[in-house]
Amino acid sequence: MNNFFNPKSIAVIGASRSPGKVGYDILRNIVQYGYEGAVYPVNPGATEILGRKSYPSLLDVPGQVDLAVIVVPSKNVIEVIEQCGARKISSAIVISAGFKESGLEGAKLENEMIRKAKEAGVRFIGPNCLGVIDTHSKMNASFGAGMPAKGGIGFFSQSGALCLAVLDRALPDEIGFSKFISLGNKSDITDTDIMLALAEDDDTKVILGYIEGLTDGRRFMEVAGQVSKKKPLIILKSGITSSGAKAASSHTGALAGREAAFSSAFKQSGVIRAHTLNELFNYALAFANQPLPRGPNVAIITNSGGPGILAADACDGSDLQLIPLHKDVVDELRSFLPPVASFYNPIDILGDSGADRYERATNTILRDERINAVLILLTPTAVVDVEAAASAIASISHLSDRPVLASFMGKQSVERGVRLLMKGNVPNYSYPEEAVSSLNAMYHYRVWISRPGKTYPEPVGSKNNAAQIFAKAGEENRERLTDSEVHDVLDAYGFSQPKGLFARTSDEAVAAAKGIGYPVVMKIVSPQVVHKSDMGGVRVNLRSKKEVENAFFDITTHVRNIMPAAHIYGVMVQEMIHGGKEVIVGITKDSQFGHMIMFGLGGIYVEVLKDISFRITPLSREDAHEMMRETKTFPLLRGVRGEAEADIEAIEKSLLALSQMATDFPEIIEADINPLLVRTRGEGVIAVDARFTIGGE
Ligand code: ADP
Ligand code: MG
User: Which residue from 27, 145, 179, 206 has the fewest beta carbons nearer than 10 Å?
Assistant: First the structure.
């Protein structure tokens, strides 16, 4: 990748003499920001552009070319790529648009280009991109306006427009970047290539990315997991909602994956997820400028009550903690703060505070070693010298190994102070909540890098026993497994199930109930009925011969009335399970990431509450552990108001068994066990009802 960032010579094919044209702007950017290598404009109609000798064709350029920047019309790009091959130029940036993003013809052209580039041994960024900037080699091979300051943020983006916006936002505050990479259609070099390159790049401290869609979700997870252990990897993903997804596919022709899949993938690979551009920027500032907090304890210093409370509320909704300060520290604060100040966290040093009080209070608080981070809020009162306060905070932060973040609120009166803060590497946020969420992201990242590797269970289940079942259903081109097949598959993976007997007639049902023992449950058996209770097809707690006979009659007539076309085979008579809590566990398949395991609490309420969590397979023990705890209703399993704790470990085992099953049988498209009845701790779980949908690999 070095040729893309630090080439010794660049040829701009399609360089133009007309200002305002992309081919002109790129050449101008390369020349004007101090790039020190050789620059060769290529344009058949020019002899000189911007003071550089121009060549009719790439083949005429003398000497070695490390990087080709291609700006010619799309129909001519392939020819230039071939010339690159002939000249042994292995790196190119294809700025030209008119490919996949423009329709079918463009997509064909793009495929042809990919093929030709492979043949010619040329790796390329783009097409349909803005270009590449490397501040450290002073190379601006883009048509963006302006050159960002040198710094530690490496940014890649699928959207060129977003590059422009980020660039423009960075310029006035002199926010430092190492590299800017506009990836465009990503038809050769992709996000993962760039992530790996930035992970290795000494100039880059923080990696920032904007993604609309991915082509290989699994590869992304693998690379992101590796990279995020080295450097913070902050990603904004758009195209999550269905309308956003539509915009994304018309934008660069990428198919956006679903929200659940992406959010699981990000979690499992340590990606710090930004939900808005603002968040992306906020996080980048924090990570690029401050050390990570070693723990969740934060102290808030403020000169006014309201913002302090807002910040405290934000902490409350995060994993950060506001612990009371050490007694000695409080005593010292008392020695110089007015008695009406607040010494509890948030520490309110009052509206008449000057810069000196900010300085002293911050220094004092940092003496409390249990405090992992400090957040300084300032409302511009008439008393406070904002710039003096900013300078004092910047010097304290400079000497501290703990993160210091600021929120100087307002605009006009804090502007110069904010600039001093930023210059002193103290990120400033317009609102306290933003500072808190940035600090929270840092804390999460700290937890991610310090946690030990994932552990995977030994394979469970007897794949062989289930294999025949899946094979048979596959041969018969069936989408669903029958009830008895479901039973046998679950059995093969160690799931307990209620005792059950199939009955075709009322008499058989009575005999079955007698064999199983009262009370029993009866359910309709029909290939057309998917949700049995919705069709009046389930009766529970049947205690006698009479009740079984009535239930048989009720169930069969009811289903026949609502679904006259349904084939009714009979009923399943089941052992009635008492007590236990209902959860749902299952498998789904995402087009990008493959199988995911689902967990949710609530049985029949699951669709209403939507309190579910996902993880992409294969599940580690940690994944299984965390995904349960992520749901809001998880505490119900722990037991509320004196209830006994449910067998959480058994659920964990079930999730891992499903993950194994999904790995063993790629043809599973969907499976759910609903309910999985969870008994009290030590007593296990029972798969009461399940269905499987399968399809070609
Ligand atoms: P469906 O989901 O197709 O409507 P289920 O088999 O899940 O059918 O039954 C519906 C509900 O009936 C379950 O969510 C559960 O509450 C209850 N139920 C079903 N079978 C049993 C059983 N064997 N023991 C106890 N309750 C059961
Ligand atoms: Mg069910």
Answer: 145
